[in-house]
TrEMBL record:
The lineage of its organism: Bacteria, Pseudomonadati, Pseudomonadota, Alphaproteobacteria, Sphingomonadales. This is Mannose-1-phosphate guanylyltransferase. InterPro entries: GlmU-like, NTP_transferase_dom, Nucleotide-diphossugar_trans. One of its GO terms (molecular function) is nucleotidyltransferase activity. Residues 18-246 form the Nucleotidyl transferase domain. The keyword Nucleotidyltransferase applies. PANTHER family: N-ACETYLMURAMATE ALPHA-1-PHOSPHATE URIDYLYLTRANSFERASE (PTHR43584:SF8), NUCLEOTIDYL TRANSFERASE (PTHR43584).
């Protein structure tokens, strides 16, 4: 049996800073996103972004940089009223949506010089035997990694309609991306640890984090940790219903 594992680092500390990606347009979630940004859509009794901040707080994250664009005033007001115990900073993309890679570039000075968490704001997951964020932290090795992605097996990617994203070697190193017309066994959950050194030599304007991932992959410095709990791809109104039914059965 193939085992995908990394050697946990003793006494590993969770990154104190997180980048929360919250600037997207939420087109797949329409019509619910006509009047509110996707991170404020309720799932299982509270907005998606509240689920994320609850996880960040539980893991010990102290600072969060959140990028905003679509219905930014509404989202920023919610965050300033809701977020307690975490220093909140807003990376303002009201003038121009920068996508994921461009969002990291724009927020670079706020993120500091240490490895940081990067979490999609429309994420919803249930921890397995260990806290997913602490699992990432325990497996982070700055000497050999530029990015460590939390992955879930395609067969356990609830509500996910894609065909997978990555392949891993037995030690957890990501060896390739999904090829056209093929399946890949692991799906990116939207949760990762990044080293600030990946944010370099960027193009002008909006671009995807894929640019940074591909460089890390080519250098052998892109790694994956396999999530042991549940993960939900809450990308559409239909997925909300499926997610809530699944959570109610826990």
């Amino acid at each position: 049996m193939t085992i995908y594992s990394l050697r946990p680092q003793p006494n590993a500390a969770v990154p104190k800073t997180a980048m929360v990606m919250a600037a997207g347009l939420g087109k797949r979630m329409r019509p619910l996103t006509v009047t509110r940004p996707k991170p404020l859509i309720d799932v299982a009794g509270k907005p998606l972004i509240d689920h994320v901040f609850d996880r960040l707080s539980a893991a010990g994250v102290r600072r969060a940089v959140v990028n905003v664009h679509y219905l930014a005033d509404q989202l920023e007001a919610h965050l300033r009223a809701r977020v307690k115990g975490i220093d909140l900073q807003i990376s303002d993309e009201r003038a121009r949506l920068m996508e994921t890679g461009g969002g990291l570039v724009q927020a670079r000075e706020m993120l500091g010089d240490d490895p940081f968490l990067c979490v999609n704001s429309d994420n919803l997951w249930v921890d397995g035997p260990s806290d997913a964020i602490r699992l990432l932290a325990a497996q982070w090795d700055d000497a050999k990694m530029d990015a460590l992605l939390l992955l879930v097996p395609l067969a356990r990617a609830t509500c996910h309609r894609g065909q997978g994203d990555f392949r891993l070697d037995p030690f957890g190193r990501i060896t390739e991306r999904r090829k056209p017309g093929r399946l890949a066994p692991f799906v990116f959950t939207g949760i990762q640890i990044l080293s600030p050194r990946v944010i370099r030599d960027w193009p002008e304007g909006p671009f995807s984090t894929n640019l940074f991932w591909n460089r890390a992959l080519d250098a052998g410095r892109l790694w994956g940790a396999v999530h042991q709990g549940l993960w939900f791809d809450v990308g559409s109104p239909r997925a909300i219903r499926e997610t809530e039914v699944a959570l109610a059965e826990l």
